[in-house]
Amino acid sequence: MLSRSVTSGISYEYTDEIFKNPSTVLIHSRTVVEKNDFVSTGLLSYAEGDILEIEIPEYKVFELGDSVKLTVYSAGGIFTFQSTVVAKDEGSLIVINPPQNRQRFIEKRSNPRIEVSEKGTIHKLIRLDTNEKQPLSKAVGLTVQNISVSGLGFTVRDEFDLGHDSVVDAELDLGFSFPCVCEVIRREKIEGGYYYGAQYVQLASDKANSLRAYVLKKQVEAHFSKKNLEMIKRTFK
């Protein structure tokens, strides 16, 4: 039985089947892509995190930044939403997967984390009870292991232990200066140091926008890198 709903500007037509992870519901779905007076049909070949990939013959007609309307004919039904072209590859488009889609398809993380290797420094510790900042006598270096728009995972050397429930005032080098205040919510001893999982406490709106762009760029790069590696493996198999 088909039914229809509208959620946050996205319209859905779906069967009694419950939507699951995009990788099991959306992959290999016929997808209509529209912009202005042009319409083309392709195949949705990738759905993870903030991005979707549509294999489409007329990919050259689309430009980066184009606003597009997508209609996906999936195993779970038909749904339509607006998106933006953020990258192109030979024979395919990469578009943004809106947050509403990720929530609808029940992803494990509302904000997917990507693996990176970036440097940064901790300048101050902040007391939770008084919000008092305690400058460090010497800035402590850190390495960002993974990052999302809501938090990050980083490592520090063995002789510096933040402990649980610490709040740090840090500055990350993401190709641009990214100051942030983070609360440690996870701590793990590793060889040569400590690994910390943290979430942002204070993030200026302009920095949040820069971070979203950075995370999206890294997701696209990681996808293309994996795709090229798989192509090489098939070639020499």
Please explain how this structure is put together:
- The protein is α+β, with helices and mostly antiparallel strands and 237 residues long.
- It folds into 2 domains: 3-104, Electron Transport, Fmn-binding Protein, Chain A (Pnp Oxidase, Chain A), CATH 2.30.110; 114-209, Thrombin, subunit H, CATH 2.40.10.
- The chain is 17% helix and 53% strand.
- It is built from 3 helices and 14 strands.
- Strands 3-4-5-8-7-6 form a 6-stranded antiparallel β-barrel. Strands 9-10-11-14-13-12 form a 6-stranded antiparallel barrel.
- A hairpin with a 2-residue loop joins strand 4 (38-48) and strand 5.
- The radius of gyration is 21 Å and the shape is elongated.
- Residues 1-23 have low confidence and may be disordered.
- It comes from Paenibacillus baimaensis.
- This is PilZ domain-containing protein.
- Residues 108-216 form the PilZ domain.
- InterPro entries: PilZ_domain.
List the total number of helices. Answer: 3
First-residue to last-residue Cα separation: 45 Å
Major beta sheet, specifics?
6 strands, antiparallel, barrel
- How many whole angstroms does the radius of gyration measure? 21 Å
At the first level of CATH, the class of the largest domain is Mainly Beta
Q: What is the count of β-strands?
A: 14
User: Can you give the helix content as a percent range?
Assistant: 10-25%
Concise overview:
This protein has 237 residues and is an alpha+beta fold. It folds into two domains: 3-104, Electron Transport, Fmn-binding Protein, Chain A (Pnp Oxidase, Chain A, Roll); 114-209, predicted glycosyltransferase like domains (Thrombin, subunit H).
